[in-house]
Amino acid sequence: MTLVCLIFIVLLKGVYSEMCGGCGGEITNPSPFISHVIHPVARQSATLFLFHETLHLFNQLCFTMSDEVGALVFDFGSHSLRAGFAGEDNPKLDIASLVGLIPSTETKPARRIIGQNIFVPRGGMELQPFLKDGLEPAWNTKNHREKIAEVLFEKFKIPAFYVAKNAALTCFANGRHTGLVLDSGAIHTSAIPVYDGLVLTQEIIRSPLAGDFLLQQTQRLIDELNIDLVPYYKVASKEPVNEREPPKWKKRANLPETTTSYENYMVKNLLQDFVASVLQVSDERYDQSQADTFPMVGYEFPNGCNFDLGHERFQLPEALFDPSILLESGGSSMLSMSHIVASSISLCDIDIRPSLYNNVVVVGGTSLITGFTDRLQRDLNMKTPPSMRLKVNFPSTAAERRYSSWIGGSILGSLGTFQQMWISSNEYNELGKGCVDKKCA
């Protein structure tokens, strides 16, 4: 029997074949099931649509697999959706947490698009985020978890289900049952203590200093430099120009009239590439005179405009570690990376603090910025009590750091004892949604 769960959804082979109305992540003629469940403008319905289509794609793959594979693992985040088979090292699917909504015309019905198809410019297509903060962040409430189970069992008729907190799975992926998980993602950075596999929800500390904040600061710098951000899809050709010279490029012909949401998303992708390519966290507190001694790094924008950046590439990410550098009112009151770690641990019982300091696990896309972990180690050393031993751990590869909670789910879903953990449909029908909180700690 093949099963799927969410962060595990467990499904039988072929269980969805009769209700899948499309393939390849795009539906042109939605089935009655989808038309009934999905409304094109509702966020919850957009989530159901994407989830349904993801299950459809994996349902096709299940026919090529042996019965040894038991679970599908889903990790829904505010930036992307990761999904794959339990027991594998990496997810099979990693797509943006967006649904493209194309309005109907006189000749074509309304369509909904997911995956790589959303990058194609289409007239009138709105890009809508289908969730915020993921389906099961550590601070999710009992009601939210029960609602997820209700939808999956009653709408999707899944045979079994299990949901786990991402911080606990991150610890599991790193060979630990106890630790302090620092997860720096798109919307926020969280310090989440985990003790013996249980997330201590009352001691979680969050900060808005994360990926999206960094993109906002980068956008301001680019505006100050008078750089016109032209997304890749608009550029037909370009000519080489000297540094800081006006670009020479030609716009692609016959482009459809795109929406503001599509334009903003493509610009955001460009900013993310700039951040990953240029920015670096300094080893010590930012000092412009010292930063100017480092070699400049060049970056070429899609339209051919190119700039060499010096101290600016250190100044932007410095706010993650020293919010007082921000000029905005109240900026200095936000919590830095080291501050949220130390604050979260200080809220925990004194007996478990040594274990938390000794097992700080760093994950999340924002933590991939060059120099992030080295600076965190330095700043935490200054905040760690002399009686404590600090050890900062982070996965060795970018994929492991980005997919840490999914990998933990993959490990858990492949264990022989997993059948004792999940909630079966019979169990749900007998005990109701109250069993979710009892079985999924």
From TrEMBL:
Protein name as annotated: Actin-like protein 6A
UniProt keyword list: Signal
Residues spanning the signal sequence: 1-17
Species whose genome carries this gene: Paragonimus westermani
InterPro entries: Actin, ATPase_NBD
Protein family (similarity comment): Belongs to the actin family.
Lineage: Eukaryota, Metazoa, Spiralia, Lophotrochozoa, Platyhelminthes
Superkingdom of the source species: Eukaryota
Pfam annotation, one family: Actin
Function: Actins are highly conserved proteins that are involved in various types of cell motility and are ubiquitously expressed in all eukaryotic cells.
